[in-house]
Amino acid sequence: MIGMVKRVRDAFVHYLSRDPEWVVRAPGRVNLIGEHTDYNDGFVLPMAINRAVYIAGMSNESNRVELFSLDYDANESFGIEEIAELTPNSSSWVEYIKGTMWALKSAGYPLSGWTGVVAGDVPIGAGLSSSAALELATARACECASEFLWDGTKMALLSQRAENQWIGVKCGIMDQMISAQGIKDHGLLLDCRSMHGRLVSLPPKISIVVLDTGTRRGLVDSIYNERRVQCEQAASDMSVSSLRDVDLPELMAKENRIDSVIFRRAKHVVSENTRTENAAVAMGIGNAEELGQLMNESHVSLRDDFEVSSLALDAMVECAQQQASCIGARMTGAGFGGCAVALVQTVDAENFSSKTAEHYKRSTGNNPNVYVCKATNGAERL
Ligand code: GLA
Q1: pTM of the prediction?
Q2: Ligand 1: which residue has its CA nearest to atom 1?
Q3: Which is the closest atom of ligand 1 to the Cα of 36?
Q4: Which residues participate in catalysis according to the annotation?
Q5: Of the candidates 25, 7, 32, 13, the residue with the CA atom closest to the CA atom of residue 343
Q6: pLDDT tens across 4-42, in order?
Q7: Which terminus of the chain faces fewer neighbouring Cβ atoms within 10 Å, N or C?
Q8: What is the CB < 6 Å shell around ligand 1?
């Protein structure tokens, strides 16, 4: 973190020949369990990670936003009045900033101009929510420049609106909520219906290891949207407003009357909600074994019933599970490529990381990246 703060600060001084007034940071996330449940009003259990987007900035006494991106080596500038209309463009980095400001503005937040240097160390497109991190960092930068009252849940909902309507990606609320509300050393059990969150401590002597398969799949958005439609279909077949309102016995009783694909999608969501609540209970009593078991089961359900895993993700999860110090592993995020997450005994975390990466590379030929992660605070002014 210190390295990244220095990087944006130094660049700010270089470009503007003065110190920034503020530096903000908003993290990426890894989801421990509760996958494809957020848009079904269900439960998720993510944590904010020590990889984030940073902005060093100052108010510029104008109506314009002036930006320098170190990652893209690019400058952008726009007038705040220009973002009054909903004008979805590309998914270029600056659109996440414009979209968030559009959502803040349309919710009535007073916005004034600022100048900022942006950089991040959340790998882009890996399923660790680099976009939510950029949205929440933007919201924090606006708070610094315009001095409005910060409300994490409201900021998360507006960032999600930016992503849904400005960028055009129909994500749920998990990524923005954890980037806004994460707390150091904790996971967050979030009820995506009430938006009520409960902090849960990570089990002692356990590390969370993110395993990037190095694979990215195109058409993720369209497959994601297709899963959403299938879940809506399942809810309608069960005569409820969302799958949150169904339990497993109720679903099983209707198996013969529901299309088999729709049934399997629903089975994943309904069973994943139960696993996620049970995982929070297990964490509450420091039972890492139980949490690991639930993670393993979650992977099987995502692979076989929800069908959002991939050969690379399955291979990574298997390589992880073969290591003696691994307590559980699963794919994480939307799926189809990207990352897996493993629960590992801290004493062996480094050895686990290199062994798993080596086995995975040997069996698939792909180049993995491995991050031993810490749970951090959500969007903050440093
Ligand atoms: C993506 C979305 C989230 C969530 C996950 C799957 O990360 O942005 O809202 O739906 O996929 O759990």
Answers
A1: 0.96
A2: 334
A3: 12
A4: 175
A5: 32
A6: 999 999 999 999 999 999 999 999 999 999 999 999 999
A7: C
A8: 35-36, 38-39, 171-172, 174-175, 333-334
